[in-house]
Amino acid sequence: MRMQLKLKLGLLVYFAIFGLLNASAQEENSEENAYKKRVLENTEIDFLTSYYTQDGNNAAVSGGKGTEELTDFTPTIVVSIPLNADDVLIIDAAISAYTSASSSNINPIDGSGQADPFTASSGASQSDTWANLNATYSHSSNSRNKIWTANFSVASEYDYFSLGFGGSFTKLWNDKNTELTINGKLYLDKWNPVYPYELRPFGANGRGLSDALFNRNTVSGNADYNPEFTEFADKGRNSYSIGFNFSQILTEKMQASLALDLVQQNGLLSTPFQRVYFGDIEDSFIEDFQLADAIEQLPDTRFKIAAGGRLNYYLNETFVLRGYYRFYNDDWGIQSHTASLEIPIKLGTKFTLYPSYRYYYQTAADYFAGYEMHTSGEEFYTSDYDLSRFSANQFSFGVNYTDIFTKFTLWNLHLKSIDLRYLYYERNSGLNSNLISAGINFIVQ
Amino acid sequence: MIKKAIYGLVFLSLFSCSVVKEYEKVYINDPDMVLGTKKLDRFQTNFHSYREAASGVNGGKTGGGCGCN
Description:
- The structure holds two protein chains of two kinds.
- By secondary structure, chain A is mainly beta.
- Helix content of chain A is about 10%, strand content about 50%.
- In chain A, strands 1-2-3-4-5-6-7-9-10-15-16-17-19-20-22-23 form a 16-stranded antiparallel barrel. In chain A, strands 8-12-13 form a three-stranded antiparallel sheet, with no helix packed on it. Chain A has a two-stranded antiparallel ribbon with strand order 11-14.
- The longest helix of chain A has 30 residues, at about 1-30.
- Chain B has helices at about 1-15, 40-50.
- Chain B is flat.
């Protein structure tokens, strides 16, 4: 089975490389005489922002039972700078500020009120800031039939740090009707693990039940609280991915693409602050909060494969159809299907409406079970409902305003377009979320 | 799945025999015909990468860079 998979992957890689080499010969002839237009005429600036809210009752922080209330605000700026006729530098900076009721329950016993998995606490873990900086350099050949990119990213939040490196090569041929991209990415991430508050006295150099926490608070239920807890030794997480994207113009009004991503992850793939409650261990409580029996334990490797395609059809001057499908499989036992359809509706030359629908389905990870459904003898376990079996529906509506003459100016910024979008997402397991996003695109002249 | 991807690739590549010329690409060049994702898509791709186990072939992260799935 594994040999067969490797053989098929080999065939695919061969097909991709053969296509590139074959096309390369065609391009060399036309390269010298090609008209050279600048890849990007002017510097462009995008101001993007989003506001996200969610709620549900299956918080992984409290072992699959508890509030999932969360809000997130993410302002972003993207600056695209033409360095010369062929080269473009894109700087992308984002800050995400979030408050999370479930994360706040990493320490539910903060004295601010009755400890309860359905009530937010006021400790330091109730909010965090994620900052991300991404730089991408791209170079296009004279004929614009070859494009190279190199990418570097850095992201940081209180308990997680990431360095990312990537690159891609794109080849167009057949009068730019056919395009193939191969990309590779490497993320070197590191956790600064934060563990559930009641488990910390049972870690290295901890005092167990003699800790001040248990002197200040009365443990009810099983008073001889004795969790299964060892701090993670390996705090790194590395992700390696390779992707292929093949696109083809099919007719004057239709084009399609196929993509394949292969991802290997190694290291700490568990989330250190996600509690698990075992069904065969007597429960212990402080106030109304059940103390963790353990934290999530997941394998330290994961192989993911995703394949999908897009099909766009220009129906007429008013309607465009944009279809998308993805199949996903990994070696944790998860399979998923994603399908979406967006139908842009053009209202004259300036306004476009974007109604869309997305359906998502996944099977559960082999290691998932709900609240109190795991037993203490298992090697791997999680009660994170993001790894459970569920389906989700998403409805969204957007509007775009484009001024092709960039008449409105703000200092030397000329307005090119404004985008607004709202989406509603609902899982059949009860979680629902709302996302409002907006973007303004300026050209610098 | 790989087999299906190869069949799809071969099927699409058959169309490379017919060529749509630059002057015939007025519809293909429409901004809404772009095969990739749009700028605002990043926000929904981001929350999908946290709330769903699947990732990849959507222009977003395939793993790494965040403490998500």
